[in-house]
Amino acid sequence: MIVVTGAVGFIGSQLIEKLNNENFNNVIAVDKFDNPIKNSNIEGLKILEKVDREVFQQWLDVNYEEVEFIFHIGAKTDTTLFDEELLNRLNTQYTKDLWLRCVKYQIPVVYASSAATYGLGEHGYEDDEKQIPNLKPLNPYGQSKQDFDIWALEQPEKPFYWAGLKFFNVYGPNEYHKGRMASVVWHAYNQIKDTGAMKLFRSHNAQYKDGEQMRDFVYVKDVVDVCYWLMHHRKDSGIYNLGSGKARTFLDLTKAVFKAMGKEENISFIDTPEDIRDKYQYFTEANMSKLRGIGYSKKFHDLEEGVEEYVGKHLGI
Question: Can you give 243-255 as a three-state secondary structure string?
């Protein structure tokens, strides 16, 4: 059995589809299952059992001998949430409890960290584990991920194989339920569909022109391909960046969406909301040499390829 937490979410549901496509059908799906809209993400997928996240750790205590691998993708991912107790409980402590079980039962695990741990990028975007304690996340969500990464690295006992993945700006199918936290691709598609135009955040940093703020946008299909590869690799444990490795501007992204929709470009700018303005990242770019260095060689989608597939095949023009 292969466990996927966050099963009805964006990345988790895509990972289960990938596993099914590779003929792994004994999947244990872990989540809340209290949102009918999100639950539709796994309709038609081959799932052996659904387990509520609140009882999963106890389920694992009973069923560990049958579990071959765990993908711990589930988390509270709202970067605007300031409930530190909730984030600690669902992100940091939950993952600690799972880690200790993976040590005890000798189960390999891949877990979701985040590029939000890098903060403003003062120390760059290299996944050097010696640098991790120096990182300064900009919000409690990023801190909850940072706290676990540091804790994991400090542990004298570790699962025989483990990997933490710092996801950068992931976009793709099954993210529609994320609201404000959905990718700019999703928001651009819907704005353009509804109004024929797209409003981007104005730059409030003299180093960047409007729309030229840059992010490492990574297609979710590439993310799940890496997860699947790691399940078979099972060596070189550690924390890894997972982005495309190439920063692109929001203008590039928006133009790609207009092109994929076959519509004429119409882009304007609005002020960045004040509640996120002082915590806004103007540049992120994953250094991918560490993952490449352990043998991952598959090409990532470039932004235009990913947007064209996402918009054309999954969102519908």
Answer: CCCCCEEHHHHHH
Residue 241, strand partner residues: 166
Please report, in range form, the residues annotated as the binding site for substrate. Answer: 169, 180, 187, 201-204, 215, 280
Q: Residue 107 corresponds to which amino acid?
A: I
Here the tokens at position 72 are: 């711990």
Q: Is 224 in contact with 15 (CB distance < 8 Å)?
A: yes
Instruction: Please write the tens of the pLDDT for every residue from 81-104.
Output: 678 888 778 889 999 999 999 999
Res 138: pLDDT: 86
User: Angle 140-154/94-105 helices, nearest 10 degrees?
Assistant: 30
* Entry pTM: 0.94
- Topology of the domain comprising 176-214+247-282+309-315: UDP-galactose 4-epimerase; domain 1 (3.90.25)
Query: Binding site for NADP(+): which residues?
Result: 10-11, 31-32, 38, 53, 73-77, 145, 170, 178
